[in-house]
Amino acid sequence: MTPVRPWRKRHEMISSQLTQPIQEPLGLGAHTGAPNFARELIGGDMAQKLFLITQKIHKKMPSQSDGETSILDHKVDSPALGFVKAVCKVLSLDASVSEEVARLRRNMLRLIGIGEFSTEAEWHDPCVSFILPEVICRACNHCRDIDLCKDNHVAEDGGKHVWLCPICETAYDLPEIEYALLDIVHRKTMAYTLQDLQCKKCHQIKMENLADYCTCAGDFKTLTKAEHLLLQMKTFQGVAKRFEMPLLLETVEWIILHNDVHKSDGKS
């Protein structure tokens, strides 16, 4: 029996996808009255229950941040605000109830004293990741971007986690990916080290290298905060530990160890 070549398998998969008829919604989504039912549910009973839950959370567990900020410089959410943002984000996935969800979100935020267009009410992905672009499979030459922390095509090969090509299911070359990530780490740290400084008062870029203060007597700050660099390094650290990349792990841990984010932000 002649084995199927990876490129031929890829061609057959793409051809079958192009020739497949468009499937109609299944289950409750196929019912013509489903959108109207969802709108009535969100605008009626569900809204009242969510209002009650939000009030209980806000009363029993008020803001616990006390001015604390996360590593991305976003204010830490109170439990009630986190609940509101998560529920509304999930409900907003259905485009047919967008108006009802927007109204529900506005009313729920009003219950906890936060404006609809406040920066605190903006949704931020709680799972930080990094996308490595244009990774090429050596077996079938398929090129794709890999989400290092959320990719679905991950398996174990000889006790080690590896990323798989979605077309031919061949494991990507981990040393090659590790060297690519090392290059990205070096570029990011170099860009952070050589970045411009900006005045905190007039927001002008620092022109003279030896000046301690701006001409307006303001202090200087970095354009990119140290917290952002630290967050990226910790993301790479998690990837290096899971996929056993020793050189990347050693490099990233050294950068984290020698960068005190509480002191590096400000004058340089």
TrEMBL record:
<dbReference type="GO" id="GO:0006297">
    <property type="term" value="P:nucleotide-excision repair, DNA gap filling"/>
</dbReference>
<dbReference type="Pfam" id="PF22912">
    <property type="entry name" value="zf-DPOE"/>
</dbReference>
<keyword id="KW-0548">Nucleotidyltransferase</keyword>
<keyword id="KW-0808">Transferase</keyword>
<keyword id="KW-0479">Metal-binding</keyword>
<dbReference type="GO" id="GO:0003887">
    <property type="term" value="F:DNA-directed DNA polymerase activity"/>
</dbReference>
<feature type="domain" description="DNA polymerase-epsilon zinc finger">
    <location>
        <begin position="193"/>
        <end position="249"/>
    </location>
</feature>
<dbReference type="GO" id="GO:0006287">
    <property type="term" value="P:base-excision repair, gap-filling"/>
</dbReference>
<keyword id="KW-0411">Iron-sulfur</keyword>
<dbReference type="GO" id="GO:0000278">
    <property type="term" value="P:mitotic cell cycle"/>
</dbReference>
<dbReference type="GO" id="GO:0008270">
    <property type="term" value="F:zinc ion binding"/>
</dbReference>
<dbReference type="GO" id="GO:0006272">
    <property type="term" value="P:leading strand elongation"/>
</dbReference>
<keyword id="KW-0238">DNA-binding</keyword>
<dbReference type="GO" id="GO:0045004">
    <property type="term" value="P:DNA replication proofreading"/>
</dbReference>
<keyword id="KW-0239">DNA-directed DNA polymerase</keyword>
<keyword id="KW-0863">Zinc-finger</keyword>
<dbReference type="GO" id="GO:0003677">
    <property type="term" value="F:DNA binding"/>
</dbReference>
<dbReference type="GO" id="GO:0008622">
    <property type="term" value="C:epsilon DNA polymerase complex"/>
</dbReference>
<keyword id="KW-0539">Nucleus</keyword>
<protein>
    <recommendedName>
        <fullName>DNA polymerase epsilon catalytic subunit</fullName>
        <ecNumber>2.7.7.7</ecNumber>
    </recommendedName>
</protein>
<dbReference type="GO" id="GO:0008310">
    <property type="term" value="F:single-stranded DNA 3'-5' DNA exonuclease activity"/>
</dbReference>
<dbReference type="GO" id="GO:0051539">
    <property type="term" value="F:4 iron, 4 sulfur cluster binding"/>
</dbReference>
<dbReference type="Pfam" id="PF23250">
    <property type="entry name" value="zf_DPOE_2"/>
</dbReference>
<keyword id="KW-0004">4Fe-4S</keyword>
<dbReference type="InterPro" id="IPR054475">
    <property type="entry name" value="Znf-DPOE"/>
</dbReference>
<dbReference type="InterPro" id="IPR029703">
    <property type="entry name" value="POL2"/>
</dbReference>
<keyword id="KW-0862">Zinc</keyword>
<keyword id="KW-0408">Iron</keyword>
<keyword id="KW-0235">DNA replication</keyword>
<comment type="function">
    <text>DNA polymerase II participates in chromosomal DNA replication.</text>
</comment>
<comment type="similarity">
    <text>Belongs to the DNA polymerase type-B family.</text>
</comment>
